[in-house]
Amino acid sequence: MVVHPLGKLKLEAMSKLHNVGTYLCELAKGNVQQEQLYLSIVGVDVHKSSSVFEYEMESATLECKITPIKSIITSAFEGWYYDQNSTEIMLSGDNFITTNGKLVIKDPRRIDSGIYSARFNLNNENTKIVYNCQVPLKASPLVLNLPRSISYFMDNDANITCMVLGYPMSTVTWTFEDRELQLSNRYLLSDIGGNKNNRLTILKVKYSDRGTYNCTASNGIGFTSSKVILLRVRDPFEWLYPLVGLIIEVVVVGIIVIICARKERRRLEEITPKKK
Length: 276
Fold this sequence. Notes:
Elements lengths: L1 E3 L3 E3 L10 E9 L2 E10 L1 E7 L1 E2 L6 E11 L4 E11 L2 E4 L5 E4 L2 E5 L7 E10 L4 E16 L5 E5 L4 E4 L2 E4 L3 E6 L2 E2 L6 E6 L2 E8 L8 E8 L6 E10 L5 H32 L5
């Protein structure tokens, strides 16, 4: 334990039980006490058990048991929470059975995987402390369906996003025409939705970029998952081609009409008797 000037306290080796307790910080001017601040450090012994999602499983069970160590007077279980898009949601309803530190999820889906928190309120002599015991529901990755093909005009930037369910978050690898995709200053990878490298950006697409792209997701749980998408590259002036074709067709028909008219006129001149 090291005490610094200006009211700064540094506790070393926080895993040691002798640091558990309540600390009092007093602000005084001369002999006059102006303010007091209590800082409590508590210790708990934690035992966790989690589940791994399996297709068509009937239920998944998560559990967190805590045993307060020293200085804690009471502990009370508040409820289970789920972190959804950085927002904590308290779990309730028919699909969830919550008891003291135990959570049963009925008919779980892969989208239910993630971090769940069992919240306990720990009370000592001076303050109330909230302790969140985090337990994961793990699941192997699943790449969501991609469209069969996407089209971009030449020289535009193309984005292909591989959305993945599962926990822990997945790392995505890419292939092009069944060969490992070679990254360059035109082929860029970025992270979307917590997964790694699951968006491929191709700057200023060219005709040589046309073909089949494959994204494969893995997170160390169970099997990998992959999907294929076809990238089509279109000419920005392709709308002109039907018009040019129509103009050419009209010109050709006009030429044919003129030629036929001339031939018909010559034929008539040949069969018509000349006046003497």
